[in-house]
Amino acid sequence: EGTDVTPARKHRVVSKGSDIPCPVDKFQELAERYRMAPRLLANLREHNYKHPTGVQAHGMPILLEGRDLAAISPTGTGKTLAYLLPIFSSLGAPIASLNDTGSGVRALVLAPTRELAHQIHNECLKLASGRKWRLVLFNKATASTLRDKVVRDKVDVIISTPLRLVAAIQEGNLELNNVRHLILDEADRLLDNEFIVQVQEVVAACTHPDVHKAVFSATLPAGVEKLAMGMLRNPIRIVVGLKDT
Ligand code: ADP
Ligand code: MG
Questions:
Q1: What is the ipTM of this complex?
Q2: Ligand 1 lining (C-beta closer than 6 Å)
Q3: Whose CA is nearest to atom 16 of ligand 1?
Q4: Whose C-alpha lies nearest to ligand 1, atom 19?
Q5: E strands within the chain?
Q6: What element of type H or E holds 45?
Q7: Rg of the chain, C-alpha, whole Å
Q8: Of 21, 115, 193, 245, whose CB neighbour count within 10 A is largest?
Q9: pTM over the 0.80 mark
Q10: Where in this chain does the record put each Helicase ATP-binding domain (predicted)?
Q11: Rounded CA gap, 207 and 218, in Å?
């Protein structure tokens, strides 16, 4: 598992935007440059993630510097970790361990299908091991536990499809006004006609002035890209291709 992924040196990455941070060669550099917690790096080693892929090498520094990002990278190149690691690093510590009553969901990952949301949750669990992160795969059961405001005020990361999330927002059972990290995964599908209205509603509900947004996709057709860029603030855009193809 996780060993046959193409390393960054076999990727060609084209970046566009202002003040683009340097990519990293190794995960270890993230500790040096961004004080990433040793625990997170240990969890990477534990799961045999040895070298960052292209989208990780370039994308992680961008997100860790708090920039908005549109990342286009082929399927199987590790886009999930590219955003999850910076999210965990930026959150610092689990809300449950902070001496804090909590003021709502801290990070949100949107995915077009339940299957994908489930896979993202599994990647989250790898990074989360050893600390008491509150990770919620939003479904019927977890939605019902989150009706309790005390519970939903102390959530680190929610992973959800748009439909169920919008329903919860509309019913007054979820607030997203404390979300600092918003990710649209498989953004080409999230921003097509099937989901666009719901996605825009979710984005609009993330009202915190310090919300950092990023979209990830294997492809981003022109019309969809325009929509995506319109949601982002001074974004950097990276496009990853495989060399010799
Ligand atoms: P994408 O979203 O780009 O299609 P995924 O995030 O689903 O790709 O990752 C594909 C596979 O590669 C997963 O099994 C993941 O655990 C693994 N993987 C991700 N990053 C690395 C890495 N740096 N080294 C080794 N395996 C990795
Ligand atoms: Mg993916």
A1: 0.99
A2: 2, 5, 49-53, 56, 73, 75-81
A3: 2
A4: 78
A5: 11-16, 69-72, 107-110, 135-137, 157-160, 181-185, 212-217, 236-242
A6: helix 38-46
A7: 17
A8: 21
A9: yes
A10: 60-238
A11: 28
**Residue 60 and residue 207: Cα distance in Å, rounded?**
24
The owner of tokens 């990455």 is 13
Share of the chain above pLDDT 70, in %: 96
Higher pLDDT among residues 243 and 201, named by residue = 201
The helix-helix angle for 38-46 and 114-128 (nearest 10°) equals 120
**Residues 26, 56 contacting (CB under 8 angstroms):** no
Q: How far does the centroid of ligand 2 lie from the alpha carbon of residue 78, in Å?
A: 7
The two three-digit tokens of residue 1, written as one number: 């598992």
Question: How do residues 55-75 score in pLDDT, each as one tens digit?
Answer: 999 999 999 999 999 999 999
Q: What is the pLDDT of residues 143-153, one digit of tens each?
A: 999 999 999 99
Residue 183 class from Cβ within 10 Å (0-12 exposed, 13-18 middle, 19+ buried)? buried
